[in-house]
């Protein structure tokens, strides 16, 4: 469901005024307040879930799990950079930089690292690129770091979990993580912006690595999920209050705004986890079927959003009709492609699907 929210968010990026690969002729600020509602916490939630999954895999200690895990992430990343993402970059240079060549003309430039696609008053496009798949190399690096830390100190996760279990409260689950994220933003935001380039992305690492580690610790903390569930309403109110404050704030200095942003970021994560524990913590066959395929849908989705947007643009549909059509069309076409690839065993790992 968190990845599903990401798909809807990327469709929204087509309609807002913020920089993105492709823009609707009807782009405006209308959706931007609602995008700001989820923007601070959507990726932190994914990293926290990933940290919990990684800690569970570490605990099971299956032989060769690290190589399998890195392959599960790395093969879709390679397929994405070489096959799935290039259409995104092609339509970006067509729309934003006036490129008039065909896709077959563009592909050698993309694979060859062409440096000539530049905006009139902006940076040049880096090719080849991972675009929306930036999450995967970050997750691979964080997985290696967690694995190495457990090799050096085998019981540190258990000790951290037991210590947290003995002091579970709003202070340890809400306030302390908020202060960690706020400190990272206060220290780094004046000099760094999020780049998604891995090696020069200090601000993103200061936000996502703590969320990943928190997820790993939560997975080893007895009683943490029910405690988070008890905080879900409080966290939701904090998240909504921070969102409204940031929307209405005028002439407020940057440091308080960064602290409020961090509050919305962490409170949104805790609220999502708490409500999920209450409402989804039971066997749901439909949820299991989606969970086995959603990673592959994530790998495909942004390219499909852009291709569908280009295909239906001549219809000149209004956003209230076109947007839902893009979401449904993206999900359905992605699921159809995933089902096709499921039937061809050698293709499955390249989309992150387990072998049959």
Chain-wise SSE layout:
Blueprint: H1 2-13, H2 32-38, H3 42-60, H4 65-84, H5 86-97, H6 103-111, H7 135-152, H8 156-165, H9 170-188, H10 202-218, H11 224-230, H12 232-248, H13 254-280, H14 285-291, H15 294-312, H16 319-342
Fold and architecture overview:
With 356 residues, the chain is mainly α. The chain has two domains: 1-39 and 302-356, no CATH class; 47-62 and 134-281, no CATH class. The chain is built from 16 helices and no strands. It has helices at 2-13, 32-38, 42-60, 65-84, 86-97, 103-111, 135-152, 156-165, 170-188, 202-218, 224-230, 232-248, 254-280, 285-291, 294-312, 319-342. It is globular, with a radius of gyration of 21 Å. It starts with a helix and ends in a 14-residue tail after the last helix. The model has no long low-confidence stretch (mean pLDDT 95).
Which spans of ≥5 residues are poorly predicted at pLDDT below 50? none
Mean pLDDT across all amino acids: 95
Strand content: under 5%
Q: What is the percent of helical residues? A: 55-70%
Overall tally of domains: 2
Chain oligomer state: single chain
Class per helix and strand makeup? mainly alpha
How many β-strands, per DSSP?
0
């Amino acid at each position: 469901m968190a990845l599903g929210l990401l798909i809807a968010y990327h469709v929204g990026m087509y309609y807002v005024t913020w920089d993105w690969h492709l823009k609707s002729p009807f782009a405006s600020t209308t959706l931007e307040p609602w995008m700001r509602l989820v923007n601070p916490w959507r990726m932190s939630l994914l990293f926290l879930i990933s940290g919990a999954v990684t800690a569970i895999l570490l605990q099971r200690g299956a032989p060769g799990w690290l190589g399998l895990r890195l392959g599960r992430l790395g093969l879709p990343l390679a397929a994405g950079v070489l096959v799935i993402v290039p259409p995104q970059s092609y339509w970006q240079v067509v729309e934003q930089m006036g490129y008039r060549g065909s896709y077959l003309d563009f592909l050698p430039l993309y694979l060859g690292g062409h440096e000539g696609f530049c905006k009139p008053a902006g940076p040049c496009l880096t090719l080849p690129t991972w675009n929306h798949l930036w999450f995967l190399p970050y997750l691979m690096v964080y997985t290696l770091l967690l694995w190495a830390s457990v090799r050096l100190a085998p019981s540190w996760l258990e000790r951290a979990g037991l210590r947290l279990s003995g002091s579970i409260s709003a202070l340890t689950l809400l306030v302390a993580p908020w202060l960690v994220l706020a400190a990272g933003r206060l220290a780094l935001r004046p000099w760094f912006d999020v780049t998604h380039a891995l090696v020069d992305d200090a601000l993103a690492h200061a936000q996502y690595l703590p969320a990943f580690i928190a997820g790993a610790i939560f997975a080893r903390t007895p009683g943490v999920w029910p405690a988070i569930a008890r905080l879900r309403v409080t966290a939701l109110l904090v998240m909504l209050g921070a969102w409204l404050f940031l929307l209405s704030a005028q002439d407020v200095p940057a440091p308080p705004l960064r602290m409020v942003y961090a509050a919305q970021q962490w409170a949104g994560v805790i609220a999502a986890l708490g409500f999920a524990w209450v409402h989804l913590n039971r066997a749901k066959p439909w949820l299991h079927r989606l969970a086995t395929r959603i990673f592959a849908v994530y790998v495909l989705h942004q390219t499909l959003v852009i291709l569908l947007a280009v295909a239906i643009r001549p219809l000149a549909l209004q956003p209230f009709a076109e947007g839902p059509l893009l979401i449904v069309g993206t999900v359905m076409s992605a699921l159809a492609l995933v089902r096709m690839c499921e039937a061809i065993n050698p293709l499955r790992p390249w989309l992150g699907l387990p072998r049959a």
